[in-house]
Amino acid sequence: MKLLFFVFTVFFLSTLSAQNLLKGRVVAKNEKETIAISGANIFWLNTAIGTISNEEGAFELDYLGTNDRLVISYLGYKTDTLTLANNKTLIHFLKEDEGAQLEGVTVSQGRKTIQKSYFEAQNVIRVNSEELLKAACCNLSESFDTNPSIDVSFSDALTGTKQIQMLGLTSPYILFAEENIPSVRGAAQAYGLTFTPGPWIESIQITKGAGSVVNGFESITGQINTELLKPYTAQPIYVNAFRSGNGRVEGNAQWAQQLDDRWHTGLFIHANQRTQRTDRNEDGFLDMPLSEQLNLLNRWQYTDLQKGWVGFLNFRFMTDEKQLGQLDFSPAQANSSNWGSVIETQRWDTALKIGKVNPKLTYRSWGLQTAFSHHDQNAFFGNRIYDIQHESAYLNLIYNSIIGNTNTTFKTGINATYDSYDEQVDSTPWTRTDRNIGAYIEVSSNSEILNWVAGVRVDTHNNLGTFVTPRFHLRYTPFETAIIRAAVGQGRKAANIFAEQQKQFGSNRQIKIRNNGGAFYGLQPEKAWNYGVSYRQLLLRGNQQADITFDYYITRFENQVVIDWETPGAIQFYNVKGESFANSFQVAIDYAPSLQWNFRLAYKNYRVETRYDSGQKQLPLQPKNRYFFNVGWESKPGTNNQFWRWDLTWHGLGQQRLVVNPRDGTGRWAPAYSLLNSQLTRVFSSRFETYLGAENIGDYRQVNAIVAADQPFGLLFDSTQIYAPVFGQMAYLGVRWKIK
Amino acid sequence: MKYTISLTVSLLTCMVALGQEVPSKNEMTEFTVNGNCEMCKKRIEAAALNIKGVKMVRWDIPTRVLNVVYNAKKLNIESIHQAVAAAGHDTPIATAPDSVYAALPLCCLYERNDYN
């Protein structure tokens, strides 16, 4: 009984005292933030009852009632004396004492130059213009050197262009878009990436896995969208000059002008040339082609923010000429005894984009995208001829709105494409017209925990028939530091076997197509499913940032056009009978220990196999293992905004399978090797900078680049069997000057 | 005379009816909501967007103005104020419960200036 009484008393007392306890926090405004004031004195006036706030600014104190006044004081702030009408949690803001100001603390955080998406359902990697400055970066094909998600092969000895790969598959399986209008397709597939100069690029978005249905059914392994500089935001006057040790000279000039409060215009000029003949391996062939390019772009931008109108009108002209082959070859000599090649390309592009955003209901908008291009290539390779003319028209009408509220949005629309091809392959002409009309809808649901994007489109194509393309992307955040993504989607494409495999003309292999009645050179179209999962774990946040990402993607072809180099003297094209797939695994670590340093490390494993006549095999010249390391450093900017920027990239390539040929014999593998590139930039001010760099610092070269180089007109001559750079170490120097 | 009066009355009624706004599916409103930071923005916008009939919300940090597009046939403005206040942020016509306000994270504590 006594015990019970005691318990009661304690309980009663404790509730009593709890009721009479004043709880609160002492805080203050610092610039925009609310901060805790720890160590503030809180006491009842003229009493000995007082306390000190803790690290969170919180305090607890007996509540004395309305007759007493509470004093809150802290050094550097005005002392406040309050009368509390009732006992409720007190949140008190102290005001700074103007007489004694304390220095504010600024927190700065650099923007990462490669940003992986956090909130989007799609696995998107954004590359901004600062990242693009890290590579020698003269054109789009060279913009991915410092990015582990894209594999850039070294320049092809014959054409000097860099091939890019994503998830183990080459660029025809990637959908390229320029400001969301498909580009680098059809006739432009082989060299198109070199037709977009680096200084014109504002940013690049790389989506892994089947992309959005809005841009068409063609993407299979991913999408790469390039945003060009906009007249509205471009530097008014800018020049850039570049020269490399292998005789490449490039110049860029840019001018942007505001015409009135709605119209802006910009003119972008690019020219490049390589005139130096080099033959370090002394096989009698140029190590790098001679080339010349002139590229002009004129953009008009209309913006009326009040009414919600935006418009772009682009005109573009490009002319490009490459000469390659034996050193003594001169295009002027007709029927020369020397092997040589000239590739001439002219291209016109025009695009019109109009967008209208409802000024009140900003989630409602519609857009119209139209583009026309004319591509004309004339080329000969020794005695072989490859000419292609490609006219293309594109139309896309999109409507954006919401379902319920802005957490669920949708895009719907129709698009139409027209492509007409006219090719001359040796003595055979090929003509084809592709017409397609499609309708699509894509619904996105956004929340912090779970996002998804589901899209479907239906197309009617004169050569592919009527078909449905589904795609689905999902992002899930089980806890704040982890992001899981999954994607599944289908893609189809017509294989333009000559335009895509233009390097085949650098050999005298006989072309054999196994006609099965298909609409594309007698072949059936390609069709594949892509599945992928990705897991990203943030390891460190705040001043030090680190994360690790695991990606696993599978592309499984239901139909594919096999490019069979396995028989010497022949190149065969046939629809696959049996398994064809590309499995890619990537683990990448990003670590930024401070604002100055940034490290990237990646390992990639590719199992890319197809069923050849001669059996199931890994694709030739495709390393199974790739390693990547990049370190970047930037000094702290000085008073005039001057600083140093340095970066070093190491690419490790594992063994590559070689096809049977007189040089390599049967069943051989190319040795593993690595390449090292580095660049140092001195930014003198926000206006002027100069950069110096070197590629292939270790000077790794494939000496015997051309098979049967001594018999360039013989059946076994083949310049396509290249697994390493032909041109070794290369240094370059450039300046960038923002005049205005 | 009777007719004239009734005609005038009915005309007036019509005019009054026309003058009154018919509730529309895409009504817009804006009002000040107390708060400071990015976290407040998420909380305020989520609270408003969770109401059935609210289509779009945007809270601007520097001006502290909340823009709302909502279906006026489904809800009235007061319910938006109440939902935002229930999440801890005062609006001109609704006050957050003291316990919810006091439990806000430090960076979100805005100055209420009321001690009574």
What does this structure look like?
The complex is a heterodimer of chains A (740) and B (116). With 740 residues, chain A is mainly beta. Chain A has 3 domains: 17-94, Immunoglobulin-like, CATH 2.60.40; 114-226, Ferric Hydroxamate Uptake Protein, Chain A, domain 1 (Beta Complex); 227-738, Beta Barrel (Maltoporin, Chain A), CATH 2.40.170.20. Helix content of chain A is 4%, strand content 55%. Chain A is built from 3 helices and 45 strands. Chain A has a 22-stranded antiparallel beta barrel. Chain A has a 6-stranded mixed β-sheet with strand order 9-10-16-17-14-15. In chain A, strands 1, 2, 5 and 8 form a 4-stranded mixed β-sheet that branches. With 116 residues, chain B is α+β, with helices and mostly antiparallel strands. Chain B is elongated and about 70 Å long. In chain B, 39% of the residues lie in helices and 16% in strands. Chain B has helices at 2-19, 38-49, 77-86, 98-102; strands at 27-32, 54-59, 65-70. Chain B is built from 4 helices and 3 strands. Classes of the chains: A mainly beta (740), B alpha+beta (116). The interface between A and B is medium-sized, with 31 and 27 residues.
CATH class of the largest domain in chain A: Mainly Beta
> Looking at the chains present, what oligomeric state does this protein adopt?
heterodimer
What is the arithmetic mean of pLDDT of chain B? Answer: 84
Number of domains of chain A: 3
| Coarse structural class of chain A | mainly beta
Q: What is the strand tally of chain A?
A: 45
**Residues in helices of chain A, as a percent range:** under 10%
Distance between the termini of chain A: 92 Å
The average pLDDT score of chain A comes to: 89
Shape of chain B: elongated
